[in-house]
Amino acid sequence: MTVYLAPSALIKLYVDELGSADVATMVDKAAVVATCATAYPELCAVIAERQRAQTLTEAQATRALAQIDHDWATLLIVVADTTLLQRAGQLTRTHDVAGADAIHLAAFERLMNAATDDDLQFACADPRLTAAADALL
């Protein structure tokens, strides 16, 4: 199985929240775990935001960021090149998604088009983005 993790799912590996166990199980079962390069700053922003909101301590944030850095090398990273970004712009016109979400949708589509694995899954906490990814399948 190949799984694409949008940032709202990927963050669940680093911050304990509803759905964290489900994402961890999905990752454990996957042969390939992918995300878009833009997920990295998105994850860092979530960690920083939660630290500012004091829902994560400095020590927890530091551990989470270190784990993200460690795990990043194990992920299949879809590059956000000009072609992908233009495709994301097109997808905003055909799906009810925001610009940043459309980047992940385009990255998933690119992964889908290149995959040799028939069992490709998209993991996300946003129902609209999940519906758009399902429509691509």
Q: What is the strand and helix layout of this fold?
A:
Blueprint: E1 2-5, H1 7-10, H2 20-29, E2 32-36, H3 39-52, H4 58-72, E3 76-78, H5 82-94, H6 99-114, E4 120-123, H7 127-136
Parallel strand pairs: 1-2, 1-4, 2-3
Named at the architecture level, the CATH assignment is 3-Layer(aba) Sandwich
Helical content, roughly? Answer: 55-70%
* Pattern of helices and strands: EHHEHHEHHEH
Strands, count: 4
Strand order of the largest sheet: 3-2-1-4
Point out poorly predicted stretches. none
Report the structural category.
alpha/beta
Query: How much strand content do the residues show?
Result: 5-15%
Name the features.
single chain, 137 residues, alpha/beta, Rossmann fold, 4-stranded parallel beta sheet, 60% helix, 12% strand
Please give a structural write-up.
By secondary structure, the protein is of the alpha/beta class. The chain has a single domain, classed as 5'-nuclease (Rossmann fold), CATH 3.40.50. Helices cover 60% and strands 12% of the residues. The chain is built from seven helices and four strands, in the order E-H-H-E-H-H-E-H-H-E-H. It has helices at residues 7-10, 20-29, 39-52, 58-72, 82-94, 99-114, 127-136, and strands at residues 2-5, 32-36, 76-78, 120-123. A four-stranded parallel sheet has the order 3-2-1-4. Helix 3 runs antiparallel to helix 4 (58-72) and helix 5 crosses helix 6. It is globular, with a radius of gyration of 15 Å. The protein starts with a strand and ends with a helix.
Summarize the entry for a quick read.
The chain has helices at 7-10, 20-29, 39-52, 58-72, 82-94, 99-114, 127-136; strands spanning 2-5, 32-36, 76-78, 120-123. With 137 residues, it is an alpha/beta fold.
